[in-house]
Amino acid sequence: MKLTVIGTGYLGATHAAAMAELGHDVLGIDVDISKVARLNAGEVPFFEPGLPELLQRNLAAGRLRFTTSYPEIGEFGEVHFICVGTPQKQGEFAADLTYVDGAVQALLAVLKAGSLVVGKSTVPAGTAARLAVDIEAAGADLVWNPEFLREGFAVEDTLRPDRIVMGVADDRAAKVMSEVYQQILETGTPLIVTDFATAELVKVAANSFLATKISFINAMAEICEHTGADVTQLAAALSHDERIGGKFLHAGLGFGGGCLPKDIRAFMARAEELGVDQAVKFLKEIDAINMRRRSRMVDLARELCNGSLAGMRVGVLGAAFKPNSDDIRDSPALDVAVAIQREGAAVRVYDPQAMANARDRFPMLAYSPSTIDACADADVVLHLTEWAEFRSMHPSVLDAVVRQRNIVDGRNALDRELWRAEGWVYRALGRQ
Ligand code: UDX
Residue 134 C-alpha to ligand 1 middle, in angstroms? Predict the structure, then answer.
């Protein structure tokens, strides 16, 4: 089939390459000329394991290319995926739909009658019904097909999703979509065909649930800190109950990234517009628990520096919001680094992949080319993003470079006994 993908960020670039991998002819579009040039040259403009190989393979096979021209995509295909971002609005909780609305308007100007528009962006409930009016007036159909991919596993999640959800207004749209995803569906992937509002809600409900699970265990971590209990052992014990399970029960610095924080906030804003704000008021507490972990991290660092961070040297390990990603949107690590610097400490940050993005967004922080350099003369080391290279590091690597052997493990991912045995003061969130 001939498909187009509008927007080539984490979602769109992965979706375009994955659809080509399934054997479709794919044309991606983005307004950013340099991004399009890099993608056409086989270069992924962000870090996503496995995506460069997928992109290069499909460019070489002639099934994939990228453009900046809307008339070209209108001409090229009859199924158009909307994969643009829906960030949080400046100064409010609601989602900014400028890019979705802009993409649909641009598409409408070139759309052939009989085409299918497929929304994948995360949007507030009610958006699809609103967009469908103009799309149907142009003789086309709309499907809402939310995406559940995790950064770092984007290729795997796109080619082998847990489920496919389609919000449709008629059977024809569902039939075309089943052809698009035929290969995936043939492997037994569950398919849920539903209405627009349910499809939109599945995505925000899923992200709200995940955020709630993380904040639940982080709330327990707060209790552990006041009772002497150990949240990692608590979580392990809870996880043996199959109804609870162990995933997303990892206590630490909490969630960040381009999805969870802004999606729960946009959900609260939309619920308020709908007059049902009571129903998701608990998400405000989920958000607050999450943000309190960041302050607690700063408190622990301050405690290890005898009550004041002023004049202290702090080595920060990690800038990305999670490992295997260079995404720094709402990164807890950088939030903590900035807060610590504001208290007068000299902070040096190192991350295996997110340095360029971090420098760009937080030019006021100092950056180091390596773990050793970031920790040189440090009074305290903060482990904030659990990259494998930090987890596997032996404490002796840092023994000679730091001023004081103090470490705060913000991700409960280091071997506490090992660090203590090597003479380090080890502190963590939710455990002694
Ligand atoms: C998330 C959803 O998982 C995905 O389905 C959706 O499509 C987009 O949002 P992503 O933002 O890539 O994906 O990251 P995810 O792996 O879910 O992690 C989110 C955040 O939660 C990270 O900051 C991570 O460090 C944190 N986290 C995760 C925890 O603090 N504890 C956990 O147990 C799990």
Answer: 34
